[in-house]
């Protein structure tokens, strides 16, 4: 996890966003035991209040579950949720790109052309 | 709000040349609270009052929801442990083992294997009298003996003073681990910013005998930023300052660049963008700078503010 101390974004938000994406993208597998609240707070140099809040939020979203006395585990995210998350993340990024294009008066044709070029370049070699 | 380990209600105490208080404070159970403030701000007096080593003239102190005006009963004392600013001379003629044996009589929860483990981790020398130890070595014994008593409330008065960096890290780890395994509360007075960063959940600031309040540590970090902008000269900076309410410490920082401090970076950044002023760079203030602003009256959001929501 990367905490940017120079960011105006609140600490709890930074941690929550990153942990959520690690869980949904499957980087942290289902059933993984997360560090205790105090341990995690120590690693991130933040307070237990912040970590408790993050665990609570993600538990409410169904991404984590706490077993009394044992700790906090990653829940089953499900294929549907993972697909939705992927779709949402990419849609959001593309929307930002289109907004930028708009603000510099890029035409629809130019934009589509550019998009194809980029996809071509980035996906080459991978297939 | 969580249960309180300690509560102070309008507590005040006269000292030779100043009055401490009135102090109002609640220490939430299960947390680490850093007590910060300059020398002579009253931190040690506060800790001593929590042990009834000294008594307030006015107000009331509650330990786990009970006032003990007739003296803290032994069964409550047995759940409290203290690392004083200066170690007790009474134990000077004892070795660490002898002092531990004596303390174990007072603390029914005393954990001897844990004590040995901590002594080993901290590398405290054996078979020499406590009075012959260096300040750091004695400190390490005190911390080990405090944890081995398995207290629910730890009052630590600058526990890390005299510790080398290795011992300091070991202490931080030991305190953290203890908190992970026990639902204890730690009040720790310290001057070391990194100690606050690594350990604390809440920060309590004392200044000239007054409590300036308790803040959630993470809400303090990132609360203030220093911003550098392009401006031509002093005159233009003065003009800009009037357009940016709530900003402080406007100074020219070399040719064509000025800096100032703000508690609302996002809003100010938008405003600057709107005005066509270029932000060169920005950084968030360090804890010591934030505490400095706090003592000057620029207080952060306090825990008590949130209660009213």
TrEMBL record, chain B:
MF (Gene Ontology): ATP binding; ATP hydrolysis activity
CDD domains in the record: ABC_DR_subfamily_A
PROSITE patterns membership: ABC_TRANSPORTER_1, ABC_TRANSPORTER_2
Pfam families (alphabetical): ABC_tran
Entry keyword set: ATP-binding, Nucleotide-binding, Transport
Lineage per the UniProt record: Bacteria, Bacillati, Bacillota, Bacilli, Bacillales
SMART domains (UniProt xref): AAA
Domain of life (superkingdom): Bacteria
Transport in keyword set: yes
Residues of the ABC transporter domain: 6-233
Entry-linked SUPFAM superfamilies: P-loop containing nucleoside triphosphate hydrolases
UniProt source species: Paenibacillus agri
Descriptive protein name: ABC transporter ATP-binding protein
Keyword Phosphoprotein: no
């Amino acid at each position: 996890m990367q905490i940017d101390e120079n960011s105006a974004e609140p600490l709890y938000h930074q941690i929550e966003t990153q942990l959520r994406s690690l869980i949904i993208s499957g980087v942290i597998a289902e059933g993984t035991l997360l560090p205790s609240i105090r341990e995690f707070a120590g690693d991130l140099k933040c307070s237990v209040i912040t970590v408790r809040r993050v665990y609570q939020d993600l538990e409410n979203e169904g991404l984590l579950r706490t077993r009394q006395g044992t700790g906090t585990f990653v829940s089953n995210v499900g294929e549907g949720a993972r697909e939705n998350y992927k779709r949402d993340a990419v849609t959001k990024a593309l929307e930002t790109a289109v907004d930028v294009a708009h603000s510099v008066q890029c035409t629809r044709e130019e934009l589509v052309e550019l998009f194809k070029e980029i996809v071509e370049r980035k996906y080459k070699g991978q297939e | 709000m969580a249960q309180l380990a300690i509560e102070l209600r309008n507590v005040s105490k006269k000292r030779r040349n100043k009055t401490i208080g009135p102090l109002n404070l609640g220490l939430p159970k299960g947390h680490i609270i850093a007590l910060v403030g300059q020398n002579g701000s009253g931190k040690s007096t506060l800790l001593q009052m929590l042990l009834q080593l000294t008594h307030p003239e006015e107000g009331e102190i509650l330990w786990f929801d009970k006032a003990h005006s007739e003296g803290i009963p032994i069964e409550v004392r047995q759940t409290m442990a203290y690392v004083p600013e200066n170690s007790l001379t009474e134990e000077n003629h004892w070795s660490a083992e002898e002092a531990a044996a004596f303390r174990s009589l007072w603390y029914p929860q005393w954990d001897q294997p844990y004590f040995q483990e901590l002594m080993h981790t901290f590398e405290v020398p054996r078979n020499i009298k406590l009075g012959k130890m260096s300040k750091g070595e004695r400190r390490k014994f005190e911390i080990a003996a405090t944890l081995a008593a398995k207290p629910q409330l730890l009052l630590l008065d600058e526990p890390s003073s005299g510790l080398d960096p290795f011992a300091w890290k070991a202490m931080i780890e030991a305190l953290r681990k203890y908190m992970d395994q026990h639902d204890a509360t730690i009040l720790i007075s310290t001057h070391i910013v990194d100690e606050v960063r690594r350990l604390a959940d809440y920060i309590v600031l004392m200044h000239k005998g007054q409590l300036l309040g308790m803040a959630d540590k993470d809400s303090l970090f990132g609360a203030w930023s220093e911003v550098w902008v392009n401006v031509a000269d002093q005159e233009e900076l003065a003009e800009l300052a009037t357009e940016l309410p709530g900003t402080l410490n406007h100074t020219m920082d070399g040719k064509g660049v000025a800096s100032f401090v703000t508690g609302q970076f996002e809003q100010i950044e938008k405003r600057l963008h709107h005005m066509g002023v270029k932000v060169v760079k920005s950084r968030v203030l360090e804890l010591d700078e934030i505490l400095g602003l706090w003592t000057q009256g620029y207080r952060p959001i306090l825990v008590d503010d949130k209660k009213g929501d």
